[in-house]
Structures are given as structure tokens and as C-alpha cells.
């Protein structure tokens, strides 16, 4: 299935030269003058080699047809990360190299989308927003205004994020998994 390059997202699987690649990240560039482009970092599924490609944002890219289903995270052990399909109770093990940097976002029972090709997990898509708890943060400096400054904070899952000054330890916040940015205070 052909899609335009600017629609590619982290976790998508594309087909080039008869091989499958999983998108690690995709960035669209819109210069003031010239043609907008999409720069994509990918990992070849067959051997794990990382490659970078750049296309015009309107170029057609072949998106591979893979089976994508929602799975709930169960646990992690020496084999890898175990997920269960909620309707059929089928379990699938995602290896550490397929999981990659997404490991820090995993929470027990979390619904993720596992992409399989011929019943082998090849990519995983995390929820776009997750809720985490702040474990430590710097104290507020007098005179800082909420609109202009953010301060570094550490979350319960080991991520460093920038948060507004009014956020303190013990506060639950929502972060964007694409760029680890603060979205809002959790409503729970």
C-alpha cells in the first residue's frame, strides 16, 4: 500500500528493495524556500542494520502489510517482553532489540500495538501518551514565571523530562512518548 512520506510515524513498517524496514523516527522539514522533505531513520528487520532515508514529503512510499493487533503487556524475563492478545489470550514474546528504546514506557497491563509479519513480532507501537509519577525535581527558584521556564524532573520509570515549576515530587503527569515532553497534569 502506497502512502506519502510525510505520513510515516515511529513503528510503521515500510518495504524497500524487497526488504522490510521498521521506522525508528521520522521528521518532516519545511524550509522557507525549496522542497519540504521527510527524513526517516529505519532498522532493516532481517539483519538489524540501521539506515537513513530522505524523501520529498509527497513521494510515495510502500507501506508493508503486516498484522497489527492490540496486546496487553504482561511481564519481562530473559526471553523478552511477554504480551497477551485480550480476545484470544494468544501470547507473543517481543525481543529486546524489537522493543528498543520503548522499554522505559512499559507499564503493567499497558495496551500496545504489536506488528507481526508471518507471526514474528517485528515492531511495536506504544500509546502516544502515558501517565508517570515524578520522583524528584529541582526546587522552584523565586522569580521564575510559569510561562517562561521549565525545570528538569525524574519520573518513576527513569525518564528525565522538563516540567513546569509548579510540578513537584509525587505529582502524576502525562507525557508524550514521541519526544518525552510534558503534556499535562494527570487527571486521576
Automatic annotation (TrEMBL):
One of its GO terms (molecular function) is translation elongation factor activity. Residues 130-185 form the Elongation factor P C-terminal domain. CDD domains: S1_EF-P_repeat_1, S1_EF-P_repeat_2. SUPFAM superfamilies: Nucleic acid-binding proteins, Translation proteins SH3-like domain. SMART domains: EFP (SM01185), Elong-fact-P_C (SM00841). It holds the Pfam family EFP_N. GO terms for biological process: peptide biosynthetic process. Belongs to the elongation factor P family. Involved in peptide bond synthesis. Stimulates efficient translation and peptide-bond synthesis on native or reconstituted 70S ribosomes in vitro. Probably functions indirectly by altering the affinity of the ribosome for aminoacyl-tRNA, thus increasing their reactivity as acceptors for peptidyl transferase. This is Elongation factor P. It comes from Fuscovulum blasticum DSM 2131. The lineage of its organism: Bacteria, Pseudomonadati, Pseudomonadota, Alphaproteobacteria, Rhodobacterales.
Amino acid at each position: 500500500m502506497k502512502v506519502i512520506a510525510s505520513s510515516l510515524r515511529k513503528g510503521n513498517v515500510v518495504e524497500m528493495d524487497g526488504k522490510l524496514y521498521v521506522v525508528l523516527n521520522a521528521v518532516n522539514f519545511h524550509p522557507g524556500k525549496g522542497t519540504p522533505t521527510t527524513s526517516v531513520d529505519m532498522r532493516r528487520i532481517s539483519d538489524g542494520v540501521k539506515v537513513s532515508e530522505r524523501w520529498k514529503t509527497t513521494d510515495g512510499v510502500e507501506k508493508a502489510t503486516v498484522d497489527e493487533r492490540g496486546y496487553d503487556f504482561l511481564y519481562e524475563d530473559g526471553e523478552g517482553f511477554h504480551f497477551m492478545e485480550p480476545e484470544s489470550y494468544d501470547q507473543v514474546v517481543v525481543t529486546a532489540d524489537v522493543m528498543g528504546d520503548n522499554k522505559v514506557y512499559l507499564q503493567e497491563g499497558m495496551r500496545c500495538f504489536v506488528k507481526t509479519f508471518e507471526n514474528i513480532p517485528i515492531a511495536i507501537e506504544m500509546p502516544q501518551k502515558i501517565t508517570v509519577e515524578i520522583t524528584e525535581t529541582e526546587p522552584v527558584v523565586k522569580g521564575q514565571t510559569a510561562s517562561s521556564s521549565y525545570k528538569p524532573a525524574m519520573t518513576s520509570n527513569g525518564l528525565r523530562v522538563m516540567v513546569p515549576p509548579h510540578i513537584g515530587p509525587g505529582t502524576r503527569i502525562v507525557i508524550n512518548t514521541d519526544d518525552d515532553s510534558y503534556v499535562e497534569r494527570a487527571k486521576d
